[in-house]
Amino acid sequence: MSDFSAKHIIEALRSGVPSRAVGAYFSEARPDMMQRVRERLPALQEDGKYDGFVFMGRYGEGKTHLLNSIFDMATTANMVVSLVPLGKETPIDKLHQLYPKLIQNTWLPNASQPGISRLFEDMTAGSSLAGEMAAYAAKELVTDKLYYLLRAYLNTQSEDERFTFLSDFGGNFADLNLIKKSYRRIYGTPVKFNVSFSKTKHIMDYFCFMSHLFAMKGYAGWVILFDEAELIGRLGKKARLKSYVEIAHFLKPEPRLEKVLSVFAFSSSYLDDVIDKKKDKDLVQQVFAEDKESRDAADACIRQLEKCPELMPLSRSEIEQILVRLQEFHGRAYGWK
Length: 337
Known about the structure:
Structural class: alpha/beta
Distance between the termini: 16 Å
Number of strands: 5
Oligomer: single chain
Order of helices and strands: HHHEHEHEHHHHHHHEHEHHHH
Strand order of the largest sheet: 1-5-4-2-3
Strand content: 5-15%
């Protein structure tokens, strides 16, 4: 490691702002939690399974640091990683608003900047990858909107259209009429959607499409990290309960998602301050009285929260290990012995 890199670590620690670099080089703590993740990653790679779990920790006890350590572990294992804090701009109860923020904060292995645009920019019409993705979008998704979008994107000669369609894959949804017009001009046949696309109803098609694309590109999996999940406790009743439903879908994803691991970090106070104080268990039964699927999903999410592991205070030996490493990095950064 260069002196500059060591100085970056020291300054990141001095600022108190969580850093991916710090998470990568100070990952010895929380061995039990890191082992939990380490055991799940091979299942994604070998079997294509999907998984998810929740953990809790008190304020300042290292939740974001742990997520950054998981981030480094996953990218080292040739996995795509997304990391977003949940909040008003990334509401998990509204997946069509969360998705674009998630994609903007998605890192391909060895990439210097986040984003997935180069996967599409490198894809050419007539390639085996383009054929596979078009067939997948036509047959495996609820709607065939992404099938028409992909084919229009790959074959349009208009740079403006190409940019608009590329942005659509990232969640900046294009006008459906533009897709229809472009497709008809290119192929001479009209677009006939098998199901009328709605971004609020069919956004999971995008998650599934991207997970399949990552798998076809040879990446070992997709790890999605949600920080500050306790902020959903500030939402109104219906939005909060809908959040539980969507979290359940990530903790136990539908089979169409390929090689996806989702991790949620909650504050330890969430159970007392939100679940108990706001009587969310009772509210689930009331609000979803006529919707068994949502009721079961929300119940499953709350049960996961109640039994999830919690970060414990660092032991004396763990603190000593960190201080030894801190001393070593300080010496590298400033040339001290």
